[in-house]
Amino acid sequence: MMGLMASEETRTVTSMPIRTPEPSTISEPTTRAWTMRLLVVGIVLTAMNLRPAITSLGALLEEVRDGLGMSGSVAGLLTSVPPLCFALFGVAAPRLARRFGAGAVVCAGMVAITAGLLIRPYVGSTAGFLAATALALMGIAVSNVLMPVIVKRWFPDRVGSMTGLYSMALAFGTASAAAVTVPMTEALGGNWHSGLVVWAGLAVAAVVPWIPFVRDRAGTPGTPAEDKHGRVDAPPLRITRSRTAWALAVYFGLQATGAYITMGWMAQIFRDSGVHAGTAGLLLAVTMVMGVPLAFVIPRLAIRLPHQGPIVLALGACGLVGYAGMYLAPTSGSWAWAVLLGVSNCSFPLALTMVGMRARTSAGVAQLSGFAQSTGYLISIPGPLLVGVLYQHSGGWGLPIALMAALMIPQMAVGVLAGRNRIVEDEAAR
Questions:
Q1: 8 Å CB contact between 286 and 335
Q2: First to last CA, the chain
Q3: Residue 222 — pLDDT band, cuts 50, 70, 90?
Q4: Displacement of CA 241 from its chain's centroid (Å)
Q5: Is residue 113 a contact partner of residue 52, using CB atoms and an 8 Å limit?
């Protein structure tokens, strides 16, 4: 990108009279380089903050329940709050970006995460805890939707590599919060309040890189749909007319269903099959850690293919084999099944990559990302609850695992449709 900028500047200079450049002209390339580096840092830190609010709570849920006197039904509701908030608040992200600019909205999202994580351990009531959690999830929701927009606008020629970097950082943050929260809580004296509030420090760090982008002073219009402040003007696009948009939304929802079922129930499945509790936790950590390297590789591969269907099918096949293994030999092959399900869960970075590829402009990406993620998270809400109901009524994991495997079939089908080389602006215009 810098090489291209340099060549453009050279052509400009040779076509104009020679004159002594002003100091501001000399410093512009350097300023642009630092702007891009700062933006990369902001993207990475933001991605790392998009899951610790959820996985840190999951690690200490029993302690939180005892501390707040939370009933089992309320605790079950708490585990369903994230996708609900993602669906409700994520749909507002494109409108907020049009009015205030994507950088300003992401910065506000990081502030909301910080405030929610700081407040919720000390509110002293279940209602207050839920409200503070919802505040943090609101910030996560808008940032979820706008990350593909930021990547499309600032890195249009590096969508695959930047989506991979963002997805890798997200997976790292998810796994770190799950693995580190309990030991860190013990090191801080065993108080669950300290174990939860410490993650606000990471959110504070993510606020800082976005401050210069609140007015987007360093940005230049990427398309006619963007003004000088980075505000995105939506074209006359009816996203619901696009079959590709619907395919992406359903694919996103089904992969999110599988991910939340895995995070919520996989460790329990292994424990009930005779695996030690500590080992079951490690198996879950392995599943999540698989997303760190693969989240960087898969988007880079996807961007090089005219059709992403083969990747969709390969990831789905890993999921089917993993679920079959959990049913037939959950103990003897547990590590292999954990790895395969971790590979299958990399449908998430693939879905984000396809969002960036299926729209022509950053305005289109904003609308497609908001629609696909909001609709997708709505689709994902019943999955974990249904697994719990099936387990309770059947007394075993056969039916729940069969449900997980069955959902993989339509996920693969709509993923193939979403992976076709189509542009949602063209489909909506028809």
A1: yes
A2: 34
A3: very low
A4: 25
A5: no
Q: What letter does residue 234 receive in the DSSP assignment? A: P
Backbone φ/ψ region at 191: left (φ over 0), alpha (ψ -120 to 50), beta: beta
Q: What is the pLDDT of residue 295?
A: 83
Give me the residue label for tokens 């999955």.
Answer: 383
Dig out the tokens for 332 from the structure.
Answer: 């003897």
At 84 the pLDDT is 85
Report the C-alpha gap between 144 and 173 in whole angstroms.
14
Position 4 confidence tier, pLDDT thresholds 50, 70, 90: very low
> What dihedral do alpha carbons 343, 84, 54, 400 form, nearest 10°?
-50
Tokens 């509110």 locate to 123
Structure tokens at 63: 């302690």
Q: Identify the three-state secondary structure at position 226.
A: strand
pLDDT in tens, 22-41: 444 434 556 678 888 899 99
Three-class SS of residue 19? coil
Helix, strand or coil for residue 104? Answer: helix
- Cα atoms found within 13 Å of the Cα of residue 291, Cβ hemisphere only: 27
- 295 vs 362: CA distance, rounded Å: 22
Residues with Cβ within 8 Å of residue 313, at least 6 apart in sequence: 412, 415, 416
- CB 197 within 8 Å of CB 118: yes
> Token match 């209602």: residue?
127
Distance of alpha carbon 375 from alpha carbon 90, whole angstroms? 9
Helix (H, G, I), strand (E, B) or coil at 232: strand
Cα(155)–Cα(161) distance, integer angstroms: 9
Express the helix, strand and coil content of the chain in percent, nearest 5 each. Answer: 80, 0, 20
* pLDDT (tens digit per residue) in 74-108: 766 676 788 888 888 888 888 898 888 899 999 99
